Amino acid sequence: MTGATARRRGRPRREEAADTRDHILTAAREEFSEHGYEKTSVRGIAKAAGVDSALVHHYFGTKEQVFEAAVAVIFAPALNAPDALADAPPDDVGERLTRFFFGVWENPATRTPLLAIVRSALSNDTAAAVFRRLLASQLLRRIAGRLDLPDAELRAELAAAQLVGCAILRYVIRLEPLASADAEQIIARLAPVVQGHLTGP
Amino acid sequence: MTGATARRRGRPRREEAADTRDHILTAAREEFSEHGYEKTSVRGIAKAAGVDSALVHHYFGTKEQVFEAAVAVIFAPALNAPDALADAPPDDVGERLTRFFFGVWENPATRTPLLAIVRSALSNDTAAAVFRRLLASQLLRRIAGRLDLPDAELRAELAAAQLVGCAILRYVIRLEPLASADAEQIIARLAPVVQGHLTGP
């Protein structure tokens, strides 16, 4: 800390604090992406950020809370999905959402950290709870809010089940022919299913 | 080993060997179910079975091969799915498969070890490869074989994506309202989707 503070001498204190927080968050994102939830420690994050563990606790709290902050950053590209639906005609939400989903997953820059989060969520209960909160509050409830239907949340979740299941079999388990299939072919097959879940009878 | 051998004195050698193999396999199934692929060791399996590690290697080979044998046992109830379709009219395969799938997952006795395998497969590449081989050769290819369509394997995989995704969001991530929804309600929603993937246009 002393070195970083010295380098930034003369800058307003609040700005310095924001820099340190960002620096820790970047380190946390990299540590969780590389090692997963279980094998990452606050001490390891502090070491990667070049700060004392106490400072990580000061800015974020527990390991679970650092994870939540890191997941929110990693998950940010996916959180634009409800906006992608904002101007979609009702018959088009299935294709918009499916196309948006594979846009995020087909891009290695967004896929790699997402994969790490999903893997952590699937192998650790605390990580699963963080993922569940974020997925529900930031994504599914907002998508459900755009559907004017009484069972909108269940609809959004069943649509998510089709997309998430496909991501897992294609990018994690790498089942063939699914793993090598053209993304457009998959989008063409899944868009009507997602549409059916969201707006069907 | 000496104790076990002594207790079984007088029994044919081949039968003894089969017993020892079964005994190791049971221990392996329990160790992998409880600790997952990464945290289970051949030494731990040997200890749980009360035998020497060398004997585990003798009967099964590497840790990956013990895992494959254990997964095949755990996965056995799921492998009856293609038979459940054997006498189904073509318009009924979606519901039959969906109902079969949730029958296995709603039963805690079959769900608990399956969950452990799925979690291992999603967090470790070697475990993922074992799961992929078994899923492809024992389940999806056999289901695809019942569909007389050129893209039958991709169809079976997209149907599996809907079911597996739902299992993950319901039983692992435990998203609400999906996690508490009545199984019959979910089957009613997913059966037509699965039918569409398998036999639709």
UniProtKB/TrEMBL annotation, chains A, B:
Source species, domain of life: Bacteria
Alphabetically ordered keywords of this record: DNA-binding
Transcription regulation found in the keyword field: no
Listed InterPro entries: Homeodomain-like_sf, HTH-type_TetR-like_transc_reg, HTH_TetR, Tet_transcr_reg_TetR-rel_C_sf, TetR_C_16
Matching Gene3D superfamilies: Homeodomain-like, Tetracycline Repressor, domain 2
All copies of domain HTH tetR-type, residue ranges: 18-78
Name the record gives this protein: TetR family transcriptional regulator
Organism, as annotated: Streptomyces kebangsaanensis
